[in-house]
Specification:
alpha/beta, 14 helices, 14 strands, globular, binds adenosine-5'-diphosphate, Nucleotidyltransferase, domain 5
Length: 397
């Protein structure tokens, strides 16, 4: 079975074609700047063939058609006919409280995804559009929606409610939804395998640390709390996002710092985080290089990030009343052994230690637990696309 995984953004479309027998990515690529004059499409195959197309991509329909043409192309194609695509899995950012699991897409589901755009304006509109365009191009291929929020739908009320008037929360659907659920699910399942037990009775903390970062407490294989909230702005300070701040800072900066209400979202999402603190970069490789050369603000940004990660881990150990395994994943979690080492340095009093030598790994699934540690510590590379493909296969089979 071959599954096409689509991640549609407002001006981009990323894809992977995955062979489910081998779990191998046959081809992948992305269309960027859809709707702009300099739009392009990059395509890459498993055996290293590459192509860049500069045909106009005025809408997502042309982007979908360009992707399908590249997959069947004589030079860089990986299938001989579009009939070989058995199903399409769509990554959807916001499933609200409606979608507790992945679901087969029909017209009603597409409309519901579109309606949830009130909670994720840029993303869900683009997802619904992408779904419609794929259906137009391949009307007979079943499609599945896999939501970033579904895994967190098991959180109890006390974890997902905010301290706002109850009626307002109900009417306007204000609550913690979380994000990166596909990654947290994939990684926590792997961690449970590594613990060598079934999910029942396990307590795991997954640190998904990338450009966007979130931490999830997983009990019995289910999410019970997560750091991202109504939107992916909540929780940790990130590459360019501020994370949780005193809510009173918002009226304060509007009144005193020249930030306009209409620019607030962009400001808090794009101008803050480690980028805002360091003034250097949102990328941890750049920050570490700058800090090594003595840049104090880059060092401060790194220290703040590490401190916040450690604080979340500590609070989730309390929320879970213990923990069996702490797991690091995503760009920083998988590759940055310094961040991992510093986070774990402050947890030795709780009985968690890493093996400094084993920790010197990048992008591999490894047990980095120290010899005297009571808590396991794992590095587990995430694979959201494979998880989406697996969920899609399970539903269409
Ligand atoms: P996204 O949220 O965009 O999916 P990723 O999970 O791909 O992000 O993470 C991207 C981030 O990972 C980069 O911004 C960078 O900070 C970090 N990163 C990637 N490789 C390394 C590395 N070798 N060392 C340190 N940080 C890294």
């Amino acid at each position: 079975m071959k599954i096409l995984v689509i991640n549609c953004g407002s001006s981009s479309l990323k894809y992977q074609l995955i062979d489910m027998e081998t779990e191998k990515v046959l081809a992948k690529g992305n269309c960027e700047k859809i709707g702009l004059p300099d739009a392009f499409h990059k395509h890459k195959t498993a055996d290293g063939k590459e192509a860049v197309y500069n045909n106009p991509l005025p809408t997502h329909l042309e982007a979908v058609n360009s992707v399908l043409a590249s997959l069947t192309d004589k030079e860089v194609g990986v299938i001989s006919s579009l009939d070989e695509i058995d199903a399409i899995g769509h990554r959807i950012v916001q499933g609200g409280s409606i979608f507790k699991k992945s679901t087969i897409i029909d017209d009603k589901v597409t409309e519901q995804i579109e309606d949830l755009a009130t909670l994720a304006p840029l993303h869900n509109k683009a997802h619904a559009l992408g779904i419609r365009m794929c259906h137009e191009a391949l009307p007979n291929v079943p499609m599945v929606a896999v939501f970033d929020t579904s895994f967190h739908q098991t959180m109890p009320e006390e974890a997902y409610m905010y301290g706002l008037p109850y009626e307002m929360c109900q009417e306007y659907k204000i609550r913690r939804y979380g994000a990166h659920g596909t990654s947290h699910k994939f990684v926590s399942q792997k961690a449970i395998e590594m613990l060598g037990k079934g999910p029942e009775g396990t307590k795991i903390i997954v640190c998904h640390l990338g450009n966007g970062s979130s931490i999830t407490a997983v009990k019995d294989g289910k999410s019970v709390d997560t750091s991202m909230g109504l939107t992916p702005l909540d929780g940790l300070m990130m590459g360019t996002r501020c994370g949780s701040i005193d809510p009173a800072i918002i009226p304060y900066i509007i009144k005193n710092c020249g930030v306009k209400v209409e620019d607030l979202n962009n400001f808090m999402n794009k101008k803050c985080g480690v980028q805002g603190i360091s003034g250097v970069s949102s990328d941890f490789r750049d920050l570490e290089e700058a800090a090594e050369k003595g840049n104090k603000r880059a060092q401060l940004a790194l220290d703040m990030f590490v401190y916040q990660v450690r604080k979340f881990i500590g609070s989730y150990i309390a929320a879970l009343n213990g923990v069996d395994a702490i797991v690091f994943t995503a760009g920083i979690g998988e590759n940055d052994c310094e961040v991992r080492r510093h986070v774990m340095e402050g947890l030795n009093n709780l009985g968690a230690e890493i093996d400094v030598e084993k920790n010197k790994v990048r992008g591999q699934q490894v047990d980095i637990t120290g010899p005297n540690s009571k808590i396991k510590v794992f590095v587990i590379p995430t694979n959201e696309e494979l998880m989406i493909a697996k969920e899609t296969m399970a539903l269409v089979k």
